[in-house]
Write a sequence for this structure.
């Protein structure tokens, strides 16, 4: 039993383990390879759509990633362990794939507008997690509302999501979902150029594309594999 419990604990910590490894690699690359031009995203280094994600740019990426990783975990507190783990794994996949897609689009933009341009950094994955968490929050809040409306029509105080959960866990999930939505909106409004201002390096283009791509990947996967990634609403 101890071994199983330890394994489950580790599986639910995947996001934080991923963050530790991902940003540690980025820090080491930046520390021992100060000018890794060959790893940048540029028309001359197209492989940079992958390798540029390994370069730490010294910004607050770690902080934002950990904040959204914590909120993501809290938002899934009401669900059973298997569902939580599946969503955590999907969030990592969507974040990385969304960042790669954003870098690819960035590369195309360089080819047509700035042949000598280049960019790098791990922020694409951070904004990818924000997009995945935000899309999950919208999806889940919609499902909670649908559940409440359906049971109100039936004059039924029960809800299927309560079968394997308690009211405190649901309260934690709802709070996490609402904070995710609020932070996503507030951060987008306060630091709008991080998403929409195309400037030197086109970092904001990567941010907005990673955010959107990861969000769409997450929603599409949740819908396509809804039996494994969604909870029953009625």
């Amino acid at each position: 039993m101890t071994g199983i419990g330890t394994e489950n604990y580790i599986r639910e910590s995947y996001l934080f383990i991923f963050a530790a490894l991902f940003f540690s690699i980025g820090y080491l690359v930046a520390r021992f390879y100060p000018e890794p031009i060959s790893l940048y995203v540029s028309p001359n280094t197209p492989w940079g759509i992958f390798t540029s994600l390994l370069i730490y740019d010294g910004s607050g990426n770690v902080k934002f990633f950990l904040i959204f990783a914590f909120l993501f975990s809290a938002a899934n507190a009401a669900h059973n362990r298997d569902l939580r783990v599946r969503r955590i794994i999907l969030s990592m996949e969507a974040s990385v794939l969304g960042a790669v897609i954003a870098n690819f689009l960035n590369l195309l933009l360089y080819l047509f507008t700035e042949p000598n341009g280049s960019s790098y950094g791990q922020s694409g994955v951070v904004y990818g997690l924000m997009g995945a968490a935000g899309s999950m929050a919208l999806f889940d809040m919609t499902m909670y509302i649908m559940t409440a409306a359906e049971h109100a029509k039936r004059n039924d105080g029960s809800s299927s999501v309560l079968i394997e959960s308690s009211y405190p866990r649901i309260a934690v999930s709802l709070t996490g979902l609402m904070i995710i939505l609020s932070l996503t909106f507030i951060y987008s409004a306060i630091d709008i150029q991080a998403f929409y201002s195309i400037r030197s390096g086109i970092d904001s283009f990567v941010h907005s594309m990673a955010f959107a791509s990861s969000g769409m990947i997450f929603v599409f996967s949740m819908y396509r594999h809804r039996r494994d990634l969604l909870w029953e609403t009625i």
